[in-house]
Specification:
heterodimer, A: alpha/beta, Alpha-Beta Plaits, elongated, B: mainly alpha, 78% helix, 0% strand
Amino acid sequence: MAAIELNGVTKRFEDDGGVLDTLVPSSNTDAVTAVDDLSFSVEAGEVFGFLGPNGAGKSTTINMLLDFVRPTSGSIRVLGHDAQAESVAVRRRTGVLPEGYDVYDRLTGREHVEFAIESKEAGDDPDELLSRVGLDADAADRRAGGYSKGMKQRLALAMALAGSPDLLILDEPSSGLDPAGAREMRDIVREEADRGATVFFSSHVLGQVEAVCDRVGILREGELIAEDSIEGLRDRAEAEAILRLDVDGDADLDAVRAVEGVSSVESRDGKLVVGCTDDAKARVVVTIESDGATVADFETESASLEDIFLAHTEAEKQEVPA
Amino acid sequence: MTLESVARKDFRDAIRSRWLLGLTLFFTLLIGGSAALFFGYLLRGDGANSESLFGFTSTLQQLFSVFGFSYTGMIGFILALIALVTAHGALIDERESGTLKLLLSQPNSRRDVVFGKLLGRSLVVSLSMLAGFVAAFVVMAVTGTQILFTPYLGQVALSGLLATSFVSIGIWLSASSDSQRQAFFGTIGIYFIFSVLWAAVSTGVPRLLNWALQELPGLDTLTTVQIFQMRLFIKYLNPLRAYETLSVQLYDSAIAARLFKTGLSERLALEPVFAESLPFYFSGEFIFLILLGWIVIPPMLGYWTFKRVDL
């Protein structure tokens, strides 16, 4: 059974001018499409990494899973429930680490976790949850208003873990954590997955996802541009080559981009850097030279997973000055 | 279950922030203090009873009413302001800071959040207000002042309802605002309307209607009695005025309570009409329903907006 299922989900944010717009409806309202016709599913028991650069629509998607934000069109089911109509039922079995949250300044860490346990009608021991995320008894008794960013993040994770949820939705769980903290976070994700929970978490850093995810989806500008296992992505990386070319004269970059097998073209340190499949290398050189420019020198290397991620997420932003 | 846990958490926060303590001290000083001033000093040995201060027809109150002022009415104005100040940030503060996301990450519905907040904040205002009335009670007992129990308890209950109605209005503003600024200015505006502008509204609307009827051919204009009745009805749509007239009714007849603080010409015109038969919409029960309406309807409107909003 799918734990999360999105079907043709679109979210447009209308930039309304408030009261004035209601009084005087104007035609030039600015709408921003944050998520565009997004469909994918996450299987029960899976650890799914939701990757993408900042502003790609990851948080909007997560907010729609939790009914913080309503989709403009499309349908979302989480744990078999409609994410809008039956949101409370969804959240009863889901642990959430949201984005853009804040803690209650005047409540202690323990009181936060107690509130989560009470809301979930669970029987967890708050101190046990707190120590699991690395907050000791001393911190638990302090008011959360004095916590550092990292401690708040740990506290929110402890709240998410209350009641051993079937599904964990974590939005950028490693933000605010130091490398050791990020590692502890990954360990907890792994433990939860071993317990049988489905984990859905977002990140803009590939390294955090690589180690723990069964599968990843890469989101760019509101669209899912890749959905694969880590191995699948790695295979793709291995099949991918990076060409660094010294070019004399002006290369027609659009022509290079149009070559079959080319995934990215950019100019770096005076060199032309082309990401392409192994068999496309010769075609790239031929295309550049057919245009009157000459390739003075070139080197080739195989791509890393990081390159693939960057190629996927930044391909359209790369503009090369000719 | 979760509505209560939202309310409990909200109430606990009011304890932590010392807001509950501050309000309790404030009302104790205000109500208990004024009781001490009057019964312990100004009215000492005058054979005064609780009505002398809390009622409307004592010599002292007659003096007040010359200035268009009653002690209970004043308590109402202050309660309303405190209730609005307490409630207007209930939801928008949490929305702006992001704690709302933590709250809604748990299995709480938005309905639980709106009505849980209403419950929590109503308790904060009502309990601190209650402390003030208890203090006044103690003062009267100590000074040997006769206490008219039934009207006094009635006044405490009505004050609790008034406080709750303005908490409701504050929750409505908080739920339907997009920013703290909006909620803040909305609160000021609402308070200004109810405390200052309402008299102009209740006078203006019948006049405007009458003027329209005059301009339209073939329609009769309103009679003086109709104009006065309409004006009086609009006046009691204001929860502050509903509270005041219901308080008067604890000590006096319904007719006297409805005509409390009306002008001479209005009184002369309406008194004989009311004496014949008091229309149902001027009965104590109906005015009481208006006050209850102010408790029930605003949070529903607030919830109606709040449930649609993208956080």
